[in-house]
Amino acid sequence: MPEHSHCMGIFMSDTKSHKIERPLSPHLQIYKPQITSISSILHRLSGIALTIGLLMVVWGLYSLADGRDTYDCFIEFCGSVFGQILLVGWSAAFFYHMSTGIRHFILDAGYLYEKKNTAISGYIVILMAFAMTAALWGSIYGGLI
């Protein structure tokens, strides 16, 4: 054995007896949700909702090609309470994703990087998505516009 091998054994046993406290990586239990993080998460969720909603478009196109009975079934589903909830949610996801995309174009152009402006633009995106969804469904039902 090398001359200093007894020192290595002592050193190694020393480190095993002391637990080293390491910092945790940031996560939701540490940070308070902010409009920027909420906006980012909602942008991703709305993208997923749009992708899933595309199945309804495919079903609609298939039903058109398949004939009157299949199309009637599709229209009946779209008119049901569940179908209406899906369609409203899908349109809200579309308007939110579109508004956030426009916000990202503005950010990519180098604007709105101040903390205050970033937060305000996050709230504006949510309000615009809500307003466009309400305007669409208000015009469909003829009550709001």
Question: How is this structure best described in words?
Answer:
With 145 residues, this protein is an all-alpha fold. The chain has one domain (34-140): 3 helical TM bundles of succinate and fumarate reductases. The chain contains 5 helices and no strands. The longest helix has 32 residues, at 35-66. The relative contact order is 0.09. The mean pLDDT is 86.
Task: Name its key features.
mainly alpha; about 140 residues; 3 helical TM bundles of succinate and fumarate reductases
Q: How are the elements arranged and paired?
A:
Elements: H1 5-17, H2 35-66, H3 68-79, H4 81-108, H5 115-141
Helix pairs in contact: 2-3, 2-4, 4-5
CATH topology, what is it called?
A: 3 helical TM bundles of succinate and fumarate reductases
Compressed to H and E, one letter per element, the order equals HHHHH
Query: How many β-strand stretches?
Result: 0
Query: Would you identify the CATH H-level superfamily?
Result: Fumarate reductase/succinate dehydrogenase, transmembrane subunit
Mean pLDDT: 86
The geometry reads as elongated
* Number of separate domains: 1
Indicate the proportion of strand residues.
under 5%
Return the CATH architecture: Up-down Bundle
What does the main sheet amount to? none
Parts with pLDDT < 50 across at least 5 consecutive residues:
none
Helix % is: over 70%
SS field, number of helical segments: 5
Q: Structural class, judged by helices and strands? A: mainly alpha
Termini separation comes to 89 Å
What is the CA-based Rg, rounded? 27 Å
CATH class: Mainly Alpha
